[in-house]
Amino acid sequence: MTLLLPVLGDQLSLSLASLRGVNPSDAVVLMVEVVEEATYVRHHVQKIALVLSAMRHHAVALTQAGWRVDYVRLTDSGNTGSFTGEVTRAIARHHATALRCTHPGEWRVLAMMRGWADQCGIPVEILEDDRFVCPLPVFNTWAAGRKQLRMEYFYREMRRRTGLLMAGDQPVGGQWNFDADNRKPASGDLLMPPLRRVPPDAITREVLALVAERFADHPGTLDHFAFPVTAAEAESAMERFIADALPRFGDHQDAMLQGQPVLWHSLLSPALNLGLLDPLALCRRVEAAYHQGHAPLNAVEGFIRQVIGWREYVRGIYWRQMPGYERLNALSATRALPSFYWTANTKMACVRDAVDQTLKHAYAHHIQRLMVTGTFALLAGINPHEVHEWYLAVYADAFEWVELPNTLGMSQFADGGLLASKPYAASGAYIDRMSDYCRGCHYRVAEKTGPRACPFNPLYWDFLVRHRDQLGKNPRLGPVFRTWDRMAPETQAAYRTSAAAVLMALDRGEGV
Length: 512
What we know:
The chain is mostly helical. It is about 50% helix and about 5% strand. The protein has 3 domains: about 1-125, HUPs (Rossmann fold, 3-Layer(aba) Sandwich); about 135-195 and about 245-320, Serine Threonine Protein Phosphatase 5, Tetratricopeptide repeat (Alpha Horseshoe), CATH 1.25.40; about 340-505, Orthogonal Bundle (DNA Cyclobutane Dipyrimidine Photolyase, subunit A, domain 3).
């Protein structure tokens, strides 16, 4: 009797649920590189290289831990190009009598796994992925009967559940959330942490050469590849972040600086989402930095909120709302994604910098994603499914369970307010306040209308007016609409005319 244990590319943990309690002599671990996983959207070349290199390193770690590993490479003769095809071939190779899997991170993969029993003719067991802090049944119990599924209240439950930053039943510091302290702009200085690079070893260099050859038509460049690809490298990156960047992370986590892709951010989300780091252990290590006096409370709380708050919350939303969630479009946005999302060829300095660093590093931090590329897409009425596929393709940490709710719900308001209490719409003033982008921009952020006005300015008001029927009763937008109503008719007309010129240029494929 042989048990076949498929391990996916984002399940790179030696303590994976499907491996526990199994005698390695009775099982084979199956790991597969398949072209369909690299091409169902046009993934950034660094993302493909990261997953393949991390998988190959993990196969070595599994072998060293005593497992028999059947590893199918992309270039192996007979590779079918599909995961189901390789599972079928592996069952025949090893005379497997049963499959044991860990719950995947994407709905389409879960549907695939559920079909294996009928297709392959052997039992399939799918276990809960307990690498997460909040089991899905616990999230569903929390969500049941609530009219609004607000992250802040979920986050408080996760603090109580984990004991992180708790003093008995009260939050350390007397409040749950220090986000108001974490909105300071930044300026470059000599104390800014350097980009944390991991030199590629022989395995990674082989993968980089393979990706350069096989996926040359995919977006991005491999020149700046710097991600950790093993658990040991991820742990080292975590310690460097805590030592060098965590103390100032809180103050400047929303700041943006031209040519500074990382600032004081951790760059740990790719390793975390691959399984190279344990989220709860990471948070406990960050919490310890506060208790040791190394980092202030606003920084530590802000980081922990991103991990046990947002990360766990959006996973719960994803699995509770799929499969229909992917196609939601509450604002009926239909405009095609502009080509500059793939080229960075735009006169808007903020969008150009965010896209350019995305193409170079497969990374941009959350404010660049939400308030620059995301807000422009929202204001311009870009089809949210196209926006979703872009984010899923270009970011190394983008797996559908975490990316889709953040894009459709938080960024594009395509779920009509299930996730966010209001659209994240903003004019150029927000970007000017939180960045240095506007100083050298072709457009002038102080100008509200006209050909040199920052496009965010007229698009902001045009977006609100276009969707007043849907958004007019939102209590958080009431003051904004009252401001619009007090404007002179000629001012309103100037905003709408300027916005129409921007949208027309987008529709014609002209430069903006």
